[in-house]
Specification:
Helices cover 34% and strands 20% of the residues. It has twelve helices and 18 strands. It has helices at 28-43, 63-77, 84-91, 104-121, 138-147, 170-183, 199-209, 240-265, 274-286, 432-442, 451-471, 488-495; strands at 18-23, 51-57, 94-98, 127-131, 158-162, 189-191, 223-231, 300-303, 305-306, 308-310, 313-315, 333-339, 349-355, 362-369, 389-395, 399-407, 415-423, 480-481. The structure holds 6-O-phosphono-beta-D-glucopyranose.
């Protein structure tokens, strides 16, 4: 189990007293992410003395039964590293209430339990609501909380964490943000994107703005193109119902990939505060050129995995996953060319790709610099001079690589491409969900997406999805084998422009 070593001056602090109310507490998200994250916070002494957790769901369950379920979940999240005593410290603050529905009357009924616990634990009505329910339940629950007395009106804070997906298209996203806006202020709404909490993603801004040597090169004079990759070996993991509605563009691009792009492309904020940073990110999204909907193949490629082998094991194709209809045309892979039309980035393509069941799990960003002119080496060097590349490795093996040329020792003039690399130590960070929870407890919105950015991302992608989805015919898919590096169409997207994808 990873505990943190923090350099002096970087210490994370436990939050103020709080209560955490988890709706949908018996679901997968609570088991796989939220409770392991809480356990990790406890292990790192990042929970205050005064707090409690109240799980709420439709299942009839005793508090004892709920604790035991969560204990099992945390044990399997940290195999071989689970510490019973540490768990007990957390477990004694975990409670459970069965709720009939997500309506205001159910929320008011929950208030009775919550108020009793608030007195017992002295948490001053600082309430953090976590909506870990399936998307169709969001609207009723937001109304339920908003119209009930669960929402505090003084004496403490109300923070509401909204899991993705944040809508299904522009219209539904506007409905969601509008509904939240009816009951909660912007500073109370926390739109989750767990990618933003990955330590290496947070590092992007430090790397760009705390070093003076890169910023002068960070523009279209020196950068040829940028590649952003989120490749997974996993399939859809029994989430057919969700994935059939979502597909990769909604699942990974509307949120994670576009967010990564904003961090790479944004201007330096005037100060390192959540609103200032989020203003700059929003400006990037506003500068993205709308995708021309004719000639879509020049901008986008999609794919769906067929059967194949990963890690020496046969795996089923998407259409063979439980719950997926045999003729599904849902895309599990996409590659997009995005153009940011501002002074810094005009003419520099950002290529984004993500897919399931690919050859390797790999997420990262690589900045490809323009090639050096080779005239002075004409007739002396054989072959091309490979351009410099800077790679920010997000996962696994988090770190940074700078690729450049040196002379190969010896009397002949030969280039020797080398890489200078930095890897984060194993013990470097809190997991993404732990970090997100800590920030939501502390009221820091830096790592959360703002409502206007949620809408803007949908505004960019909705027309494109509307064009692509109906154009895919049953016989077009599957077009890549599980365990491969994706469909040939994605390679063609870059090859047409004389470029190629980084290997996975
Ligand atoms: C989630 C998507 O947001 O991110 C999943 O819904 C995806 O489909 C996951 O697998 C990837 O996150 P990570 O942190 O495992 O790279």
């Amino acid at each position: 189990m990873r505990t943190m070593e923090t350099p002096i001056g970087c210490r994370l602090e436990a939050s103020r007293p709080f209560s955490l109310l988890i709706f949908g507490a018996t679901g997968d998200l609570a088991r796989k992410k939220i409770f392991p994250a809480l356990y990790q916070l406890g292990l790192n002494s990042l929970l205050p003395e005064h707090f409690f957790i109240l799980g709420a769901a439709r299942r009839k369950l005793s508090a004892e039964g709920f604790r035991e379920d969560m204990r099992q979940a945390v044990r399997s999240a940290f195999p071989g590293e689970f510490e019973e005593k540490k768990w007990q410290n957390l477990a004694e603050k975990i409670h459970y209430s069965h709720i009939e529905s997500d309506s205001a009357s159910s929320c008011n009924a929950l208030l009775a339990d919550c108020s009793l616990l608030e007195k017992k634990y002295e948490t001053y009505q600082n309430r953090l609501f976590y909506l870990a329910v399936p998307p169709p339940a969001f609207e009723t629950l937001i109304r339920g909380i908003g119209e009930s007395r669960l929402k505090t009106d003084g004496g403490g804070y109300t923070h509401i964490v909204i899991e993705k997906p944040h809508g299904h298209d522009l219209e539904s996203a506007r409905r969601l943000t509008g509904l939240l806006g009816r009951y909660f202020r912007q500073d109370q709404c926390y739109f989750m994107d767990h990618y933003l909490a990955k330590e290496t993603v947070q590092n992007i801004l430090m790397f760009r703005f705390a070093n003076s040597i890169f910023e002068p090169l960070w523009n279209n004079r020196f950068i040829d193109h940028v590649q952003i990759t989120a490749a997974e070996t996993l399939g859809i993991e029994n989430r057919a119902e969700y994935y059939e509605r979502a597909g990769v563009l909604r699942d990974m691009f509307q949120n994670h990939l576009l967010q990564l792009m904003t961090l790479i492309a944004m201007e330096p904020p005037s100060s390192f505060e959540a609103e200032k940073v989020r203003d700059e990110k929003m400006k990037v999204l506003s500068s993205v050129k709308p995708f021309p909907l004719s000639g879509i193949n020049e901008w986008a490629a999609v794919g769906q995995y067929g059967p194949g082998r990963i890690g020496g094991r046969e795996v089923a194709g998407y259409r063979g996953e439980p719950g997926v209809p045999p003729g599904s045309t849902v895309a599990t892979y996409a590659a997009l060319k995005v153009q940011i039309d501002n002074w810094r980035w005009h003419g520099v393509p950002f290529y984004l790709r993500s897919g399931k069941r690919l050859a390797r799990r790999k997420a990262g960003i690589s900045v490809h610099f323009r090639p050096a002119p080779r005239l002075m080496f004409e007739g002396i060097l054989e072959g091309d001079i490979l351009p410099n590349t800077l790679t920010l490795r997000i996962q696994p093996q988090e770190g940074i690589d700078l690729f450049f040329q040196t002379k190969l020792p010896g009397s002949r003039l030969c280039l020797n491409p080398v890489s200078m690399d930095f890897s984060y130590p194993e013990t470097f960070a809190l997991d993404d969900y732990a970090r997100i929870l800590l920030d939501a407890m502390q009221g820091d919105q830096m790592l959360f997406v703002r409502a206007d950015a949620v809408e803007k991302s949908w505004e960019l992608l909705t027309p494109l999805i509307g064009k692509i989805e109906p154009a895919v015919r049953q016989e077009d898919f599957p077009n890549y084998a599980a365990g491969s590096s994706g469909p040939a169409e994605a390679g063609a997207l870059l090859a047409r422009e004389g470029r190629q994808w980084d290997p996975l």
